[in-house]
Task: structure prediction
Amino acid sequence: MEQVIMNQLSYPILSTVIFLPVLGAVLILLSRRSWEPSAKWIALGTSIATFFLSLPLFLNFDKSTHKMQFAERFSWIPEWNINYFLGVDGISVLFILLSTLTAILCVLISWESIKMKVKEFYISILLTTAFMIGVFCSLDFFLFYLFWEAMLIPMFLIIGVWGGPNRIYAAIKFFLYTLVGSVLMLVGIIVLYLYAGRTFDILELMTKNYPYTMQMWLFWAFFAAFAVKVPMWPVHTWLPDAHTEAPTAGSVILAAVLIKMGAYGFLRFSLPLFPEAAKAMTPVMLVLSVIGIIYGAVICLGQTDLKRLIAYSSVSHMGFVTLGIFALNSQGLEGGILQMLNHGIVTGALFLSVGIVYDRTHTRQIADYGGLASVMPVYAAFFMVFTLSAIGLPATNGFVGEFLILLGGFAANKLIGVLACTGIIIGAAYMLWLYQRVFFLEINNKIAGLPDMNVRETITLLPMLILVIWIGVYPNAFLSFMHASVQHLLDRVNSGGMQEASIAKTLMEVVR
Amino acid sequence: MNFQLPDLAPMMPELVMTALALVVLLADLLIRKKEVIALISMAGVAFVALTLFYAPAGATFGTMYISDGYSTFFKVIFFINVILSVLISIKYIAIERVNYGEYYSLILFSTIGMMIMASAGDLIVLYLGLELMALSTYVLAGFIRHDIKSNEAALKYFLLGAFSSAFLLYGISLVYGLTGTTDIKAIASFISEKGLADNLSLLLSVAFLVVAFGFKIAAAPFHMWAPDVYEGAPTSITAFMSVGPKAAGFAVLGRVFLVAFASAKVDWAVILIPVAILTMAVGNIVALSQTNIKRMLAYSSIAHAGYALLGIITANNDGLASMMNYLMIYAFMNIGAFAVIIMLRSEGFKGDNISDYEGLAKTHPLAAMLMLIFMFSLTGIPPTAGFIGKLYIFMSAINAGYTWLVVIAVIFSAISAYFYLRIVMYMYMKEPKTDVSLTTSFSNGVALAVTTVAVLVIGVLPASLLELAKAAISGF
Result:
């Protein structure tokens, strides 16, 4: 296994960050119902512990190699040749940190707003976190699928139990959409497994070459799962409902991490496993991305609901991500990955911010706000930074990501690049207009006299603010993680294709 | 004439089980506390399970009776089924005011029938076992004499069951007419030697047998009885017959089609593939609109028969092992679900409407959580056992080249998520309307604990069960 660097730390770091939240959930389950605050304290404790235990991933990461690091491997189901196999590379490592950070913020933002079924809520949050981390570090398809699907259960409950008025519809729609996509991927996984000689080992599967038609079928089977999760146009319709109806923490998890898993799937599986098909399908994917970018942005202009607006802006921003990925060059890919991170930070922060005022006003209608800048000045400042980052202003993280993506996009196809730029312009329009309607104008009577953010809320938003500036000013701190892995990925995509082409050529000669 | 007693050792479990059923029948006359009889039955079944591992493998009564890994695995399913069913029955039949000892002996007799079916090496023995199983279940379905729905269930089950038995006999007689034997192995060699695979009357007999077995496993379009019978029968019996007779049906289906008609696979695959698709479609789609939870689980059980049929269609050892594995898992998750359902039945409250589950998570969080686990397991979401079961079936079917069939199956499986989720939604996302009080009992708690642990453990650590199923099939 020359592709893997086993874990060198004194503790199995990846297993720890996956199973510590599970342990926390079990503790909450066993805690006495009569004293409900115990649930949130346990949740906060475990999520903070998880975050700090995950920090070595950032500090000890070897940036010079594309190999999987911090790997752990045990035989699990020998009957099917399934291993418990974890590891991270430059593509996945940052998302684990993002997940552990998000977990803390989700617990903090829910501190006072969740009043019923408190135990169940924090159990769900912790389990979702655990499963999401599992998705990002699984190197065995079985394990991956297990986490991928298992995550639906707590997420379904988060949306459906603690959500807004239309929550049940949104929860079921979310579940069914993702499930249909996932089960098609499952068929694809089994086909791969059998074709490659009964192995679920992702690294081993990546070393093999698959026939072109099979690649094509499997690409679309995996597309079904990933495109729904991203979500790409036209299978995005679950997202606005889910985002809007979910409680704040649910929206944050969805925005910050969950929908990244789709794009991550493209990067981790679709490109290296089916390089030929991915290349052949690039035009389709680019067009879908651009439609997503523009469609999402235009729809945003017409929204009257704060959360729904941000939800549609997610569709637009994730369009940039898939555009970067399928530009299939290093700028595009790195930009795409960074933008996944950025979108997680910014959209997560925006949902957190909306949650903060929603807790005070219990309305999401933009028309119910106005003049908030003079009522909650600190809050307005935070929101401004996040707005500017969402627009992609230089010195914020949004700029770096979108710039790289557009660079890659132009290199791939000029027209696509130009069209994607219009998305940025509309993006500036709807975000600034939103800011104007909420924070400036006359003070709306409904919001007069609201207290500004308290310490807990400020602490919740602060990490996101720091990240926005940090990535914006010194992106290399994060981009440097990706270089080796992205280069390796590109080599795989290109060499895989060349081999296929040469095989096709020889075949043609034989036929002649 | 020299009469020699056949070797009885391989059928020790059946003999002991028969003795047990008779003892229970007699004990009913002497013992007033029926709980004791339940206890005797369970202890007895546990003892029979022990004899199962000491009884030698092999054929006896000529080759009419076969004891092998295949039959042993199914018998384990039957024992799990009978013990769990008795556990959930004890309190329930007292509430239904049908606390009679015959209940337990009938359950045992029915199980003997299933055991004989699993071990049948001859179509006549198969028929014997099937009738013993069926007749006992007809009575059990109508056990709540004072409930009109229970009566209706029994009558419907009996009439349609008798009808399907006739099909079975007709099929057997056609096979006999064609091959001159009812011995399963002899039929197989006769068909392959004489090249009868595309004989029209063989096809006809195959069709008749599909009807008869399809009835037992509740496959569409022979499923019409299932919803009414499941709804009307005592809930504990619904649990019992959604697992036992179905597994027994699959046991004979596997043996007859994969041994006797092994060389005529093209014939029966052509019939079974549409049946499987139709079964999944009817089960999953009609379940969407049910308002009664027992009816919903009836359709769900139809749908699960459809998935398990893929294992038969795969027609190799891998497929059979996946089918057996699936039935074992199904036994745990389905009876687990019924163990929750049965708790909602209390004096003067039927509790079998889906709307009765509104807000259960608020009033009874533990019961709701267990139901949630079973519902997700039935959907096939990891990390529950249901996922492992489906994955194995799908893997073996794809390996045999039925990828398109698996795609259909996963789509229906995704559709099924809706009606299972609906229960979760009612429990967790609605406010309680009526004051539902749960009937808890120690025995039911044991059943719940066993099934929950099984569903979760098999979901995470399936290795030993998979090995067991594979080992069971190795000598098939």
In short: Residues 281-473 of chain A form one domain. The first helix of chain A runs from residue 13 to 30.
